[in-house]
Amino acid sequence: MKNDVCNVAVLLMFVSLLLLGAGTVFGSTGDPNFIARNPYPADGEINVSVEPNLTLTWDIGDANTEGYTIEYDVYYGTDQNEVETSTNPPVIGIEATSHTLSGLEHDTEYFWRIDTRETYWDPDNFPPIVTFRIIKGNVWRFTTGPAPPRVITVDDDGPADFNNIQAAIDDANDGDTVEVQPGTYTGLGNRDIDFHGKAIAVKSENGPENCIIDCNGTEAEPHRGFYFHSDEDANSAIIGFTITKGYALSECRPDQPFTCSWPGGGIRCDGASPTISDCIIMGNRAQSGGGIDCEGGDPTVTHCTITGNYAVIHGAGMRIWRSSAIITNCTFSDNSLDDDGGAVYTSWGNPLLTNCTFAGNPGEAIYHYGIGGPTLTNCVLWGNGQEIYVYSPRYGGLVTARYCDIEGGWPGEGNIDTDPCFADPNNGDYHLKSQAGRWNPNEGRWVMDDVTSPCIDAGDPMMPIGLELFPNGGIINMGAYGGTVEASKSYFNKPTCQTKVAGDINGDCMVNFEDFRLLALHWTEDRNPLAEIPDFYYYSAGDEVFLDICTDYFAVCFNEGVSRDEIQALIDRDHILCCIWSDAVGEGLIVFSTRPGTTESDIIKATQRFERLSQVKYASPAFGDYVAGLFILTDEFIAKFHPDVTQEEIDELNALYDVEVIRYPDWRDWYLLRVRDLTNFKTLTTANIYYESSLTEYAVPNFGRLMSSFP
């Protein structure tokens, strides 16, 4: 009993001494030895994934923690000031150097801070000294990434997320897919469908034959299928629908058709550039653009059938106005109108139509008015009221056709005027007959014909054959199925080769000079996409002005003495150059038209490819558009220096960046400078370096103008 009392007394004394000897409790401090560091996410990191949650991690740093108890307080939130000043942490006293957060919002900036709780016990002193303090951490920030793409389902009579298409679009975010189940969709929410600028795909679950948008439009209640008018780009896509019974006819005087204001019976693109793919646009009516109307913007239309539509004037199948739409592997048939305007009407733009078929349209297949003009490649125009019509060529309008089969003929490389031998045009089957094999969509199998179409293996030999099955001749077919898995097969006046032979490129069962010719035609061709398209910009009034590449043109400045024969040889060997567009821009400077389907990546690689040639001084993409105007880089730029800058300083700057003076200041009070090293867009980058220099008031490339803006 006596010992127990003594033990209790000693214990009480010890606790008292401990408390009396306790070190000071410090407030927040920033001891660099104990402050948290090396955060994840890193300070300023963006697009941080929070699916399904996010684990924050950090380190204590280089401190010697022997004898210390270390814990952490975690602060986080969207208010920077609150996170920085708060003393009430959401998470208190954890020992791990990590903490998992859940429920974070997407596309949101968060701030976080880690305070270190340090407790130290000094056993060498009696009574022992215990210190405690909080080391306040830095405030870090990160931004969460967008929500992961969703698939939102639509079914008007079954289980799904929504029962109409518009409601699903309204719920969608950029990157989502709206998947529509088979059925016929009509009424509110299933017509006059509006993407509201969202970068989403709206697609059918089982193809256009099984998913029909019935607009049910009438004169009393006009409706169309889709309306794009919010700057949508190629990431806004409709895929795999039949769009029918759109009606966009407003009341107007018969003698003044231009007063009517309802274009686009099936689809209307107003200043927008969506993707329209694998659709059937049929039985729609409009004042203009019976099936599709494009006014401004550059939509992409691929693998579509546009048939049986009507317009009063201008484009029974499609109107393309002030647009460089890209139309590929489409069929235009039986589209009619009351007045002029064709199955496809183009005006004041440069659309590209590649591997399209025009047949059975009672008016013109192609009708062009005004500046610019469409380029047709690998197309078939046969059995229409008139194949091509250009209204008032004095405007400079021109329809360019290459490797096309055009009834009645048309000037252009590779064009023919021969019956294309459609499989069954009376029933809408425009596959090409072939003795080696033709796809029959009604039977779902390959069949043999007793004739072979002259359009097989007659397309542009420099274009890829795409998905054409073997034997494919090594050259793409003309018509809507060229380059696809339904392309008719090549026939060589003998039974089809049953065994693929290594080196047999064209599929004629032999390896010979013809295979070598095809190989040489594409030797060194590089169609791998670039990993990244660089940003092109210059400075104006303190702001970065970004430049868009126009893929229709490409400029090359040749060294003195290069002959036209040498230049033509370069055109013949290059897979993106079509022909000379202009040689009147500047001395030695020639602007080429490019082939249909040329991409920005192709243009960048062509610039790099041509700058390696001994005949070439420099090469440049064309920048701009047909509204703002087109221009190219030259080897010159303009710079104005501050008045107090000496000529010696200017000379040193010019020597540093290998720049020479072409003209010293006169009444213009600026220098005209030339870049000696013209590779890799040096004129643009050097002008920007000069602009950013403390020596200059401004600097800007001396662009060469190709085309002024349209009126």
Summarize the structure in words.
The chain has 711 residues and is mainly β. Among the domains are: 129 residues, Sandwich (Immunoglobulin-like); 224 residues; 73 residues, Alpha-Beta Plaits, CATH 3.30.70. It is built from 8 helices and 57 strands. Strands 11-12-15-18-22-26-30-34-37-40 form a 10-stranded parallel β-sheet, covered by helices on one side. A 9-stranded parallel β-sheet has the order 13-16-19-23-27-31-35-38-41, with no helix packed on it. The protein has an 8-stranded parallel β-sheet with strand order 14-17-21-25-29-33-36-39. The protein starts with a helix and ends with a strand. 43% of the residues are buried.
Secondary structure layout plus pairing:
Layout: H1 2-20, E1 25-29, E2 37-40, E3 45-48, E4 54-59, E5 68-77, H2 80-85, E6 91-94, E7 98-101, E8 109-122, E9 129-135, E10 139-144, E11 151-154, H3 165-171, E12 177-180, E13 183-185, E14 193-194, E15 201-204, E16 211-214, E17 226-228, E18 237-239, E19 242-244, E20 247-248, E21 267-270, E22 275-277, E23 280-282, E24 285-286, E25 292-295, E26 300-302, E27 305-307, E28 310-311, E29 318-321, E30 326-328, E31 331-333, E32 336-337, E33 344-349, E34 352-354, E35 357-359, E36 364-372, E37 375-377, E38 380-382, E39 386-391, E40 400-402, E41 405-406, E42 422-424, E43 429-432, E44 438-440, E45 445-447, H4 513-521, E46 537-540, E47 543-546, E48 549-558, H5 564-573, E49 577-586, E50 589-594, H6 600-611, E51 616-625, E52 629-632, E53 636-641, H7 647-656, E54 659-663, E55 671-675, H8 682-692, E56 696-701, E57 704-707
Parallel strand pairs: 1-9, 3-10, 11-12, 12-15, 13-16, 14-17, 15-18, 16-19, 17-21, 18-22, 19-23, 20-24, 21-25, 22-26, 23-27, 24-28, 25-29, 26-30, 27-31, 28-32, 29-33, 30-34, 31-35, 33-36, 34-37, 35-38, 36-39, 37-40, 38-41
Antiparallel strand pairs: 2-4, 4-7, 5-6, 5-8, 8-9, 8-10, 42-43, 44-45, 46-47, 48-50, 48-51, 49-50, 51-52, 52-57, 53-55, 53-56, 54-55
